[in-house]
Fold this sequence. Notes:
Helix content: under 10%
Oligomer: single chain
Structural class: mainly beta
Order of helices and strands: EEEEEEEEEEE
Number of strands: 11
Mean pLDDT: 95
Low-confidence stretches: none
Amino acid sequence: xxxxxxxxxxxxQPGGSLRLSCTASDGSLDYHAVGWFRQAxxxxxxxxxxxxxxxxxxxxxxxVKGRFTVSRDNAKGTAYLQMNSLKPEDTAKYYCAAGFxxxxxxxxxxxxxxxxxxxxxxxxxxx
Length: 127
């Protein structure tokens, strides 16, 4: 059973930046597509971004395009979500998820495609 661990959340002012990290307990993340999701209180879970196992395909929600960047370092078994120009509406608990499938360009996958999930890390954007 792969366990994912997110880190890097916190409190930041509007316009600030955070970088979230996601690692797998057994170091097997490099064979999986990784998705980032978020859920704010009272709202449904929202897909934020995803990246293929090799890093050659990425997807972004319209709400974060141009501000967030997903990446991965397979040598370190870690995926990242760099979040810049943060807004109060980005406040949510952020989750990383991993799935053993081929992520294709123009075809982002929903949460049901991902097998493994982390416990989440809280991101709060407030002045």
